[in-house]
C-alpha cells in the first residue's frame, strides 16, 4: 500500500530552525523527523511513500533518498504551495486505490492497521484519524455520530467555545479512495481540512477515534522540544535509539546524566556536565566546565569553556563564546555566532 506524506510547508512556526532545513528533516533526537514517520508507516505495511514537496525539495531528497528500509520513496513537487488539498490532487496518479495521506510533522503511535480495517469495514470514501485533546483550540475539531460518521468540522475554535472540553481533533492522518481527488481541479489551491473534507460530510466520510495513543504535531518549537523529551523519556517509544554515537569522548571529570543522546564524534570537555534530557548532535565540541541541561544542539555546534545552557535549541554550526549563559527557551538559527559572555533568555 502507498502513503502520500505532505511535506511542502515552510514550517514558519518552527523558524528559525526551518530557515535552512525543511521541517521533515529537522533532527528529532539526532534523526530526521521523517525517519520516525517512515518507520511508523513501514510497521503498518506501507511499502511505497510519495513525498509531496515544495519548500527546499533538494535538501529533502538528499537526506531521505529514494528508498528507506526497503520502502520505495518517490517525490512530487509544487512550484508554489498548493495547500494540503491541492497537493493531494497533484499526487493523483499515485492514488490508484486505498491510499494513506498524512501531514509530514506527526509523531504518533496510532494504530494505522486498525484504522485501515475500520475504513474497509465502513466502506468509507475517506476516513480521518481523530484523537481527543483537552485544549483543542489550536486544532480542527471533528464531531462524529454513533457509527463514526463525520457530522461537523470546526477549524481552530475559539478558546471560549471549547473551554474545559475534551474534544476529538483531526490527527492529520487520512485514508482516502481515488474518488475524492476526482472532485478537485488540478493546479488549484485547496485546504484538505477546510475545502475538501466538509464536502464529504454525509457521503461516506468517517472518523476513526484513537484514545491513549502518543500523538504530537511538531509544529512549534515548544512541541518540537516536547517531542524530543518524550522520545528520551520513552513516552513516545522508538526502537534503536542511540545514547552515544561512535567516537563520543567525555573529558576528565565530565559526565552525562541519562536520559540523553549524543551524536557521533562529539567531544565534551573536562568537568562538563551533560544534564538529563539533553540532545547533542554529531561532531559538537563542548568546552570545559560547561553545564548543559534540557538543551537540544544540532550537528557541529561549538560551545566555549564555562558556559551554561538550559532549555534551548541551537541549530547546526552555532558557535557560543566562552562564559556564555543561554536559557529560557532560546532558539538560535543555523550558524549563529555569539561572543564570549553572551547572556540570552528566550
Ligand atoms: P507552518 O508554516 O508553521 O504552519 O507550517 P507548515 O505549513 O509546514 O505546516 P502545517 O501544519 O500548516 O501543514 C501540515 C502539513 O502539510 C505539513 O507537513 C506541511 O509540510 C504540509 N503542507 C502544508 N502546506 C502544504 C502545501 O501547500 N503543499 C504541500 N505539498 N504540503 C503542505
Quick take:
The protein has 346 residues and is of the alpha/beta class. The chain has two domains: 2-233, Alpha-Beta Complex (Spore Coat Polysaccharide Biosynthesis Protein SpsA, Chain A); 249-345, Hexapeptide repeat proteins (UDP N-Acetylglucosamine Acyltransferase, domain 1). The chain has eight helices and 29 strands.
Structure, explained:
This protein has 346 residues and is of the alpha/beta class. The chain is built from 8 helices and 29 strands. Strands 3-4-2-1-5-10-7-11 form an 8-stranded mixed sheet, with helices on both faces. Strands 13-16-19-22-25-28 form a 6-stranded parallel sheet, with no helix packed on it. Strands 14-17-20-23-26-29 form a 6-stranded parallel sheet, with no helix packed on it. The structure holds guanosine-5'-triphosphate. Guanosine-5'-triphosphate (GTP) binds at residues 6-13, 23, 52, 54, 78, 81-84, 87, 103-105, 219.
